[in-house]
Structures are given as structure tokens and as C-alpha cells.
């Protein structure tokens, strides 16, 4: 497994800058569009659940579940960027993730932030 299996984030080719900060150095906010979010819900795979249950008895990282969560977060972020672009934004400030259990059948991951139009200063 490579580095991308256990980490994520925005690609270099994205037209929308996504940051967790309130501002982006070298830019000023020209227009605030508002909140945007990307949401996905993933069900648990029975095989990974059994493997995770066994692994939890002896300890250690649950690599299968880690990989699934990375994929889920990346999908939520892709959807966030799509929403921002569709509303005319070129950036999302204050991006955050929220992860919750969805009715005991899966995990809900929501990426959210404030869509804005930035200009270079």
C-alpha cells in the first residue's frame, strides 16, 4: 500500500483552493458565497468488520478501515469542491470534516466550509 492509501487531500490540479484557515495568504476575499458541503455515507463491509474485530483483540492499526475512511473523506472533499465550483467559488475557507455514525449501518462523512471568491493581492 502506498502513501495515498493512508492520506489524502487536494490534488495540485484543482481549480478550487481548499484551506482550513480563515484566510489565504496573498489573497483577499472578494465575495462570500456561503456554506458548502460534500456528504457521503459508507456502509461497513462484512469482511472488514470481521477483520477489524479480530485485530481489535490483539491490538494494532485497523489498516482496512483506515483505507476506507481515507477514501470516504476524499470523496466528501471532491463533492465539496464540486459544490463550490457550481456556486461560482474559486476557494473554500475554514474547511472541516464531521464524521458520525449513520443509524448503525455506516459512517457519514461531511466536508464543509465557506465558499468564496478570492483575488490575488
From TrEMBL:
InterPro entries: UPF0145_dom_sf, UPF0145_YbjQ-like. Transmembrane segments: none annotated. HAMAP family: UPF0145. Belongs to the UPF0145 family. This is UPF0145 protein ACIGXA_30275. It comes from Streptomyces fildesensis.
Amino acid at each position: 500500500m502506498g502513501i495515498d492509501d493512508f492520506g489524502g487531500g487536494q490534488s495540485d490540479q484543482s481549480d478550487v483552493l481548499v484551506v482550513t484557515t480563515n484566510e489565504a495568504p496573498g489573497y483577499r476575499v472578494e465575495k462570500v458565497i456561503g456554506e458548502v458541503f460534500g456528504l457521503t455515507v459508507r456502509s461497513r463491509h462484512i469482511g472488514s468488520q470481521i477483520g477489524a474485530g479480530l485485530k481489535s483483540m490483539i491490538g494494532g492499526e485497523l489498516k482496512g478501515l483506515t483505507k476506507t475512511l481515507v477514501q470516504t473523506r476524499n470523496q466528501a472533499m471532491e463533492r465539496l469542491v464540486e459544490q463550490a465550483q457550481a456556486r461560482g467559488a474559486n476557494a473554500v475557507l475554514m474547511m472541516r470534516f464531521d464524521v458520525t455514525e449513520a443509524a448503525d449501518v455506516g459512517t457519514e462523512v461531511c466536508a464543509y466550509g465557506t465558499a468564496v471568491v478570492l483575488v490575488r493581492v
